[in-house]
Amino acid sequence: MIIDYIDQHYAEPLELEEIAKKAGWAKSTCCREFKKTMNCTIFEYIMNCRLSQSERLLLSSDHTITEIAGLCGFDTSSYFIRNFKARTGISPTAYRRKYAGKL
Prior knowledge:
Shape: elongated
Structural class: mainly alpha
Oligomer: single chain
């Protein structure tokens, strides 16, 4: 239930309160049960969804980095770039250059 909700709404601002409400749990219970089941926090899962989608968009579209950041739910392109680089070791632009045409 929670995973489906996040997967469908990752590009929107997601609040823990809303996610917990969808599951019918208190916020603390929601966080605890999610971590127990998924071995990561809700926020780590959301970030993973956003970054995974951004990788697909970088390789399959001509959207700018700023557009991709917005389409994937990041408030700013700098926040997106920082998190993308932490995950992949390279910037979104370098990632696009390196892997373009390999899909």
